[in-house]
Amino acid sequence: MPEQSVLEATTVPTAPSGATKPRSRRVLGSGVIDSLVVAGPLVAIVIVAWAIAPNFMTGANISNILSNAALLAIVGFGMTLAITVRGIDLSVGSAQAFAACVTGISVNSLGVVPGILIGLLAGVVVGALNGMLVTLFAIPAFVATLATMTAMRGVALLTTDGTSVYISDPHFTQLATLSFGGVELSVVVAILLGIGTWFLVRHTTLGKHILAVGGRPQAAAESGIRVSRVLLVVYVLAGLMVGIAAVLLSSRLAVVNGTYGVGLELQVIAIAVLGGTSLAGGRANVVGTAIAALLLATVNSTLNLLNVPSYWQYVAVGLILLAALSVDGIRRMSKSRTGRASQAGGAA
Amino acid sequence: MNTATGTAPAMPVQMEEEPAASVSLARRIGTFLARQYLAGVLLVLVALLSVFQPAIIGAGNINSVLLQAAITGVSACGMALLIGTGLLDLSVPGVIAISALTAAALLPNTTIGVAIAGALAVGALAGLINGVLVAYLKIASFIATLGTQYLFLGIAFIVTEGGIVPIESYYYRSMATQSLGPIPVSFLVLLVVAGLAYGLLYWTHFGRGLRAIGSNERAARLAGVPVSAFKAAAFVIAGVSFAGAGVFLSGLLSSASGTMALSFELNAIAAVVVGGTALRGGRATLAGTVVGAVLFSYLSNALNLLGVASYWQYVLTGTVLAVAVAAGSLRRGPEARGAD
User: Fold this and answer.
1) Is B302 within the bounds of a domain?
2) Which CATH number belongs to the domain containing residue B73 in this structure?
3) Is B45 within the bounds of a domain?
4) Does a structural domain hold residue B67?
5) Interchain proximity A269–B269, CB inside 8 Å
6) Which of A186, A269, A342, B22 has its CA 20 to 30 A from that of A130?
């Protein structure tokens, strides 16, 4: 699909050389529209869920949806960055299980603060491993992270020997549900990380480099961006997000297990793509990811409230992902049809 | 596929050379062996393990390794076709589950032949769904098939309500487990399947088209290869091969369930890659795939016999896959390694 890469570059607002103002305004506008495109289905699903599911509009359920969405969104922000540089991180579920197990064990043996730090470090280590496989060894991201996904699942199960580890420290287990004016800590963290990621992409040099590497890797390299370093940073950030989510998850559940997070990669890729981050790279929509996380959490919670067997959630998530991907694919196809004439001259 | 390769500026454009008649047999064998360097590494490992645990090379154990290798290998042959086309299918566990469940549902009422045909038909249908998503809706293959993996698994769990469907047919079970001498029949089937896949890939117009797509999709399209139709057909053929693996696996387990083949896609991909097929597409070695499947099964079997915790198998599979791909990727030289 080289034609897409050439094409996508024309819509990158922040390419280091020759970015013009009208272009960035247009892309910013389309970003807002993309977010609204996801918000529409979210509103529709909330209305439907309110109508058909008993107890949907209760405080407990709303707060449950919000904290589930927060954990999804935190991992989703990292995935958004990975997809923006044309990568992917399939290892998020296993990495979350690994980081959660490490957190649980270290909180029990070393205390709350070292436990949290070690948990975050575990996420960063997996991210760095992914980043090194992708940059140093030049392995395609989906295969590299498929390999770490499997390996880290094994390591996660080995750390707890396949059993559950209960976390006894009450300070740690109350952390995630700590309330800030009625809003749980995990939601606050998700909002802060969302703003941070948005700011990173829109207003920092690193963010410009991320968009440039995703939009047109070769051009980015030729204009002096150290592509490998950008990729490594993105995977480490994605790993850090996974670590943060893992700490919050283990605090919330007060028990950790090596089987956590199976299928998480699917849900998180689904929210990133649904949120309007294109698999073609070069375009990040952080706000869309957050809204799509709310959408997915609402769907899951509604299926639970309706007593639909959990297997149906597999099907629901699979269908949501494929629908979002089809929209992404069709959008790229229609773009490449209109852009083919201009592309013919522009191809290097 | 290129959307996910990070920094690769352009697909390497050279087409794999057809083996010319003038090239000597010795040189061809030499090239073949050079591609099997990882198989060599695993062979050394197996030899070392056998020293610690002599039961590993016992006749009964060889039989069970070949049984396992046949199941991995049959699905790996389909995977090799896809990887040669520059595609990937992660939906293997889902396809195996729904096709085996189809056979299990048909068996009490019909003959074994009809049950197997039904399973293969379901595999073809699943492959067609993957093919349409990838070839016509232009979704990157690894992510489209990740979605359908959960879709198919979800269907399998819903149909079985999370349980196991037993298979009581004696002949179906013995079809999957009987042996000719020390060689299981399913392994002979694998050799036939690998031969068919080789013939398809290297001796037919269709196979030439697939390799052209794998080498350089745009060039293939400009040369008049019906890219979308060929890609969809490759997925259908791969779906049938996964269903074939599902038939053997359900016969071996005497049952079918949603969880019967979880993370089996890794084994299939690892067998192909360890066998010496590069993920960039354009060519695939079927002989290497069979060798990869055998050695991979041998290694995990040896770990079982040595009493290593089953969780290490995950670590092993992931590590072997990463090392195999990294070695292949480093060998092809810096010019193809990306923009850095």
Assistant:
1) yes
2) 1.10.3470
3) no
4) yes
5) no
6) A186
Which residue in B3, B258, B322 is closest to A280 by CB distance? B3
Helix, strand, coil percentages (3-state) for chain B, rounded to 5, are 70, 5, 25
With respect to residue A323, please indicate whether it lies within any of the assigned structural domains. yes
Q: Which H/E stretch holds residue A257?
A: strand A255-257
Is the pLDDT at B149 greater than 90? The verdict is yes
Quote the domain boundaries for residue B238. Answer: 57-330
Residue A331: the pLDDT is 79
* Mutate which: A4, A79, A94, A150, vs B, most B CBs within 10 A: A150
| Residue A293 tokens, joined | 């996380």
Q: How far apart are CA B3 and CA A340, in angstroms?
A: 18
Q: Report residue A337's pLDDT band, with 50, 70 and 90 as the boundaries.
A: low
- Taking the C-alpha atoms of residue A104 and residue A126, their distance in angstroms, rounded to an integer, is 17
Q: Does B267 touch chain A (CB under 8 A)?
A: no
pLDDT in tens, A45-63: 899 889 888 888 888 899 9
Whether B311 sits inside 8 A of A329 (CB atoms) is no
CATH number at residue A125: 1.10.3470
- Winning range, highest mean pLDDT, from A129-133, A166-170, B288-292, B300-304: A129-133
Query: What's the Cα-to-Cα distance from A348 to each of A344, B10, B214, B215, rounded to whole Å?
Result: 9, 11, 22, 20
pTM exceeds cut of 0.80? yes
Q: Is residue B197 part of a domain?
A: yes
Number of domains in chain A: 1
Token digits for B305? 């016999």
Domain that holds residue A66: 31-332
How many Cβ pairs within 8 Å bridge chains A and B? 209
Pairwise CB contact (< 8 Å): B4 & A88: yes
Residues of B in contact with A269 (CB under 8 A): 143, 146
pLDDT of residue A250: 95
* pLDDT computed for residue B69 by the predictor: 94
**Does residue A4 fall inside a structural domain?**
no
Residue A272 domain-assigned (yes or no): yes
Distance CA B316, CA B162 (A): 28
Total count of domains within chain B: 1
C-beta atoms of A217 and B6 within 8 A: yes
CB contact under 8 A, B315 and A155: yes
